[in-house]
Amino acid sequence: MAELRRRGYRALLGRAVTTLLVVVLAAGGTLVWASGAGGDRDGGVVDQPRPAPSTSPSPATTLPAPSSTAPTTITTAPTTTETAGDQVLAAGGLRGLASFGEPQDRVVARIRDRFGAPDEDRTWDQQTIQYFGVCPGDRHRFLRWGRLFVLFTNGATNYSPGGRWHFFAWYAEDHQVTGSLDPATAAGIRVGSTVSELRAAYGSSLRILNAADTPPNDGFVVGDGDFNGVLSSTSTSGRVTQLSAGQTCGE
């Protein structure tokens, strides 16, 4: 009977210890205890303490402050096409370059400085076949830059009594062999411009002439003959095929 009571006590004690261990472990604690047959003491750590959860708040994430500098805007200036450089045709010569009557060497040097070497350079006598018809004087020379023909003579003209080579006329033709120069007047009229554009540019100073007036082609005159030209037709869609000024050549 005494033995049964001891066994029941030990069983009860074991259950109590087990319950205590579960509670301690659940609480994250440490239990040191002694047991063993014959009353020997055996100390040991049943479980390591778990680290207590941190109560410190997580460090806040710092976001970069918005920039106070406005985004850089790159502005590209509009590209413009320079057109004034070829607007040289004028009633009295070549605008910004030469006037009729000026010496040949001076005029040629200025045009070379602006447009480079000529695309063509020809000299002829009056007795030979003429490119522009009968010109004043006995000897003539023309230099060509693209569509622009510049004429010189050593004979008498409206601009010189003769005896020296001088500038007396220019032509702009609707054909060219080489070169890119496409000369225009200050109003932008050039070979290929329409009759409608001529009227808008020169208004009442423009006279349109049909082939009966200027055989064998339709044509026009600006002012009192300041400069003139040939047309493909007199309709509003007719186009300029030639421009000229100075003491031009004829048949």
Descriptive overview:
With 251 residues, the chain is an alpha+beta fold. It has 2 domains: 2-37; 84-246, no CATH class. The protein is 18% helix and 22% strand. The chain has 3 helices and 11 strands, in the order H-E-E-E-H-E-E-E-E-H-E-E-E-E. Strands 4-5-6-7-11-10-9-8 form an 8-stranded antiparallel beta sheet, covered by helices on one side. The protein has a 3-stranded antiparallel beta sheet with strand order 1-2-3. A hairpin with a 4-residue loop joins strand 9 (218-222) and strand 10 (227-231). It is globular. The model is unreliable at 1-49, 54-59 and 66-82 (pLDDT under 50).
Q: How far apart, in Å, are the first and last alpha carbons? A: 162 Å
What count of helical segments does DSSP give?
3
Mean pLDDT: 77
Content-based structural category: alpha+beta
